[in-house]
Amino acid sequence: GAVAPLRFRADDPPARETAIFGARAASYIGDILRDAPPPPGVPPAELRRRPLAVKTGTSYGFRDFWAIGYDAQVTIAVWAGRPDGTPMPGHSGRTTASPVLFKIADLLGPAPATASAPAPDTLRLSHRDLPAGLQRLDAAPSDHGRNADAGMPKILYPPDGAVVSWDGAEVPLEAAGGRGPLRWLVDGRPLAPAASRRALYWQPDGPGFARLTVIDAQGRSARATVRLAP
């Protein structure tokens, strides 16, 4: 739960650490991140040479893909993306950056024999020892109305109301949900279907506002209005 300025050389003097949260919170977060599902092709934590607590991230517009992992001895950070910031729809921190992170961890060799002990006041219970209300998390009655829209298509990028920095290049369009094939329209004009079911690229005519629509095979639709800013 402590942070310190970066050291760029092994012989740099240690910097003073600052606590950002307590040891108990750090222990809980580490347990959660160690149990995070690995990307495809990476074995689960109990079968890896060096189990890590891992967190991944994907930046707005699919431009940056991060994976950061740590144990009691090392911290590894991996960034993936294009140098010019061009979007890469269909990629994520989990599928693009974290496989590299786990490969680096394997090259470092087995984890140290002793791991840092949890804080003395850390609550450690098995599933059956939890209170009954925490053993099973069901949707609250108030959630059922919201779940009615679970199968509807949704525009992921660009989201409704977004201002997209545009330099004349193609703009990626990505949707989730719905039943394929999905059809896209821009200002009421259909776009040619893409090879991917979920994403395609759109070449705008120029800057300004555009109305995006995605329609699934059952006729359900989602809309977004965006502005392209040069």
Topology:
Blueprint: E1 2-3, E2 18-19, H1 23-34, E3 53-58, E4 64-70, E5 75-81, H2 93-108, H3 132-135, H4 144-147, E6 154-157, E7 163-165, E8 171-176, E9 183-186, E10 189-190, E11 199-202, E12 208-215, E13 221-229
Parallel strand pairs: 7-13
Antiparallel strand pairs: 1-2, 3-4, 4-5, 6-8, 8-11, 9-10, 9-12, 12-13
Describe this structure in words.
It is built from 4 helices and 13 strands. It is of the alpha+beta class and 230 residues long. It has 2 domains: 2-125, Beta-lactamase (3-Layer(aba) Sandwich), CATH 3.40.710.10; 147-229, Immunoglobulins (Immunoglobulin-like, Sandwich), CATH 2.60.40. The strands form 4 sheets. The chain has a 5-stranded mixed β-sheet with strand order 7-13-12-9-10, with no helix packed on it. A 3-stranded antiparallel β-sheet has the order 3-4-5. The longest helix has 16 residues, at 93-108. The model is unreliable at 139-148 (pLDDT under 50).
Task: Kindly summarize this structure in a few lines.
This protein has 230 residues and is an alpha+beta fold. It is 16% helix and 28% strand. It has 4 helices and 13 strands.
What is the N-to-C succession of helices and strands?
EEHEEEHHHEEEEEEEE
Number of strands: 13
CATH superfamily of the largest domain: DD-peptidase/beta-lactamase superfamily
> Into which percentage range does the β-strand content fall?
25-35%
Q: In the CATH classification, which architecture of the largest domain applies?
A: 3-Layer(aba) Sandwich
Helical segment count: 4
The global form is: elongated
Find the CATH topology of the largest domain: Beta-lactamase
Provide the number of structural domains.
2
Supply the CATH class of the largest domain.
Alpha Beta
- Structural class label: alpha+beta
- Rg is 23 Å
Give the mean pLDDT: 83
Strand order of the largest sheet: 7-13-12-9-10
Report how far the terminal alpha carbons are from each other: 42 Å
